[in-house]
């Protein structure tokens, strides 16, 4: 879709543009179908919502007389459990960070912290030195809406953080910033969100992410892992909401369904109902 009142319709390898007056219900329907095939149902659903809102604006501005999507239903988005990174794969990723140099110590601490706490990429990237409390084993992050919350971490993550903090002063620009994560030695700027993305992708590829996950390793998979594991081990959805900074129970329930299925499977294996026959 272009700015103004035009719609792009990419079908059969051709890209065509329609004015708002020319684009009818069938154009929108075919565009949404194309997005389902080329991206995903959830992405097509987002496109549907954006186009529907655009149609409302066109009506308000008298660019069109009727809403072309008035009878077009949103695409069905199947309820799929969030992807969970296998523990064996994450152990391979961490094994690749076993060196004692600055980069390995830093990367191991970041990866463990994300997969342990479920912190958002932006929250972990913007951590300051004073946000880390090794004695209490928590980091304080600033989430959406500027809300602060504490994320507890495990002893293994605390050990990785302590190791990183011991090598951090060796960085030539360690005193230039109070930000926790520093970039490569030649860079003065702290490690950014994008820098962590690139690091995770590189570490994931080295561990065989394409074969194990069918995708690149990224920070949100750590949030999936933490949420699923927390609930599967008996944690409550309410506690998970507080830890992950969610204001509604929708996401916690989604992970809860995934964890419930795993608990049911484990219970069935333990009970061995068929042995009673």
The strand count comes to 5
Largest sheet: 3 strands, antiparallel
CATH superfamily of the largest domain: Intergrase catalytic core
Q: What low-confidence regions span 5 or more consecutive residues with pLDDT below 50?
A: none
Structural class: mainly alpha
If you had to describe this structure to a student in words, what would you say it looks like?
The chain is mainly alpha-helical and 277 residues long. The protein has two domains: 6-60, no CATH class; 89-266, hpI Integrase, Chain A (Orthogonal Bundle). Helices cover 51% and strands 9% of the residues. The strands form two sheets. It has a three-stranded antiparallel β-sheet, with helices on one face. The longest helix has 22 residues, at 250-271. 27% of the residues are buried.
Features:
hpI Integrase, Chain A; 277 residues; 5 strands; mainly alpha; 2 domains
Summarize the model shown.
By secondary structure, the protein is mostly helical.
What topology does this entry show?
Layout: E1 6-11, E2 14-19, H1 25-38, H2 41-60, H3 87-95, H4 102-117, H5 121-125, E3 132-133, E4 138-142, E5 148-152, H6 155-167, H7 193-206, H8 209-213, H9 219-232, H10 237-244, H11 250-271
Antiparallel strand pairs: 1-2, 3-4, 4-5
């Amino acid at each position: 879709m272009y700015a103004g009142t035009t719609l792009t319709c990419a079908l059969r390898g051709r890209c065509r543009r329609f004015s708002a007056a020319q684009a009818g219900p069938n154009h929108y329907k075919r565009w949404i179908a194309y997005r389902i095939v080329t991206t995903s149902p959830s992405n097509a659903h987002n496109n549907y919502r954006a186009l529907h809102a655009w149609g409302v604006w066109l009506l308000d501005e008298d660019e069109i007389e009727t809403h072309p999507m008035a009878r077009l239903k949103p695409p069905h988005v199947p309820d799929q459990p969030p992807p969970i990174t296998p523990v064996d794969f994450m152990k391979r990723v961490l094994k690749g960070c076993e060196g004692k140099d600055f980069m390995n110590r830093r990367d191991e601490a970041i990866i463990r912290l994300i997969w342990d706490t479920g912190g958002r990429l932006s929250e972990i990237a913007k951590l300051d030195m004073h946000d880390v409390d090794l004695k209490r084993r928590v980091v304080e992050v600033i989430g959406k809406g500027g809300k602060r919350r504490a994320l507890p971490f495990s002893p293994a993550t605390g050990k990785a953080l302590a190791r990183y903090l011991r090598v951090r002063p060796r960085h030539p620009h360690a005193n230039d910033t109070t930000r926790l994560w520093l970039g490569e030695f030649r860079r003065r700027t702290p490690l950014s969100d994008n820098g962590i993305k690139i690091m995770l992708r590189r570490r994931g590829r080295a561990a065989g992410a394409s074969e194990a996950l069918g995708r690149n390793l990224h920070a949100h998979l750590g949030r999936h892992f933490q949420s699923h594991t927390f609930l599967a081990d008996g944690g409550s959805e309410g506690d998970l909401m507080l830890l992950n900074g969610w204001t509604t129970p929708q996401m916690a329930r989604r992970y809860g369904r995934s964890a419930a299925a795993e608990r049911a499977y484990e219970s069935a294996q333990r009970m061995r109902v068929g042995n009673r026959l």
